[in-house]
Each structure stands twice: as C-alpha cells, then as structure tokens.
Write a structure and sequence with these properties.
The chain has a single domain, classed as PH-domain like (Roll), CATH 2.30.29. The radius of gyration is 15 Å and the shape is globular. 38% of the residues lie in helices and 30% in strands. The chain has 3 helices and 6 strands, in the order ααββββββα. A 3-stranded antiparallel β-sheet has the order 1-2-3, with helices on one face. A 3-stranded antiparallel β-sheet has the order 4-5-6, with helices on one face.
Amino acid sequence: MQVQLARQYRWLMLKLLPTTLGVGTVTLWARALNWPRSVDADGLALRYGRRVPWSSVKEIAVRRSYLDGKTVRLDIRHKRGISRIPVHAIENGSAVADRICSLFRDRARARRY
C-alpha cells in the first residue's frame, strides 16, 4: 500500500515557500521524512529510504480524539527510534492507520505461536 501526503499538507508546503523563504517548506518536508512511504506485509518503508521490518517494531501507540474517537496520530516505536505519524497529514490516513495496526497485530499473533 503506497502512502501519499495529504493534499492540504502539500498545499501548506507550497504556501509556506514564499512567505518563509523556504524555511517552512524545508521544515515540513524534513518532518515528513520519518513517515511511511509504503506499508506491506514485510514492514514499513520510510520516506528517507530506510526499511523498518515488523520484527523491529516494538509497539504502536494509537492516539485518539476525545471528541469523536477518531485516530489522530500513530506512534510507531522501533529499534531505530519513534515515527510519529499525524493521520490528517496523510492521504486516506484512517485507512493507512488501520492497515498498519492490523499488520502489526497479525505479526504479534504469529510471533506468539
């Protein structure tokens, strides 16, 4: 499953380009490097090129909104650090979050048996 940045996130990057002389755009781009580019049965491929296999993922924390219970952010803890993924900044963020959680859950069950 390919993961794209949300249209409004890309638009914000473009909008910040002239107003911050590129500093805001570079900041948002650098922030997004630790987010997944693709999700598959083997693991996550992050935007900066590193591959995170499911075996190195220790925990996934799901942050939800108090108002409506929707997923707001995923914190994926793996051997090399933490990837904090704001769901609103990803195209079809809820579906991506559900897919990541279900693949991690399947791997955790398979490890137990």
